[in-house]
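I am writing to request your help with a piece of structural work I have in hand. A protein sequence and the structure tokens that stand for its backbone fold form the material at issue. Please examine both parts with care and let me know of anything in them that strikes you as inconsistent. The record follows directly beneath this note.
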Amino acid sequence: MAKLFFLVSGEHPTLPFSELKAVLDAETSKNKILERLIQVLRVEANAKAIDAVKRRAALTRICCREIFNCSPTFSNIVRKLNSSTLNDFIESGETFVVRVRKVKEFAPDLISMELERRLGELILNKVRRTKVDLHTPQKTFFGVITQDRFVFGLKMAEILPKPFVERRPRERPFFHPSAVQAKLARCMVNLAQPKKGDLVTDPFCGTASMLIEAGLIGCRVMGLDVRRQMIDGSLQNLSHYGIEPEGMILADAKHLPITRTDCIVTDPPYGKSATTLGWSTQQIVEKFLSNAEDIISKGKRICMASPKSIRIGRIAEELGFKHLESHFVYVHRSLTREIAVLEKI
């Protein structure tokens, strides 16, 4: 077990932390949350957990092995680094750089560039024959100033947003305006906690946003939709990313024609561009959840989106599910999505 910390996206107050914890729970046998700070999560886990987070997470930015943390004053930071052993983090002769990120406007007296320079000098003095390389360093030391804390460590991975931008709905062969953005779809898949090889099903698959993201992290995928156009379009999109589904079924999700899946990730139809076949969104959600209980096992998850006004969590609990958590995502003045995570009990 090692002490790790993760810098997460600031674009939503709760989703990045829940997604990160879901990935750790799905991919590691044991982990412990040490502390949650603004845009930083400190964790104790196997260092290999970083590989899983890098491969799966959409809302985590930087992954590090922690060296120390302290209150964010210049003297405290210098004293902590002077008393820290760096033998496990950098070897004699390696090149390095120090980078410091400030979250919001915490510790206004600390200037990131000055702190980078001073910490670099201290590392040069502590480890023989090391050199600073600002462009192609072998090691990057990374510090975050947040709240009442400075957290410092060795950067092990950085997750760039570019791949998710390149998978925007409009970049796919088949487009529909109701499609979920790739980043949110990946986050929802992770909240359902599938493992590699698990079967992820989307009963309202639309343009296959959820299935694409599940397939890209190594899950088997299956989709259903009541419209032939969407099934055909989903197949085009999945093929575009090299994903071969277990099956794509033309069917009404209110009457599921399947017997078993490992988890469900879905965004049922609502809004002006969606087709509901005369049913209200609440009716669709209620009917779907009443049937979904039969196709997932005890302890398995459903991650589902719908308008906040529907109150998915309340409906799910009335139907016998455990409502684990909800996150609210503002879309526009008349729509706030509720992203709910449910568990079969």
Observations:
- The mean pLDDT is 95.
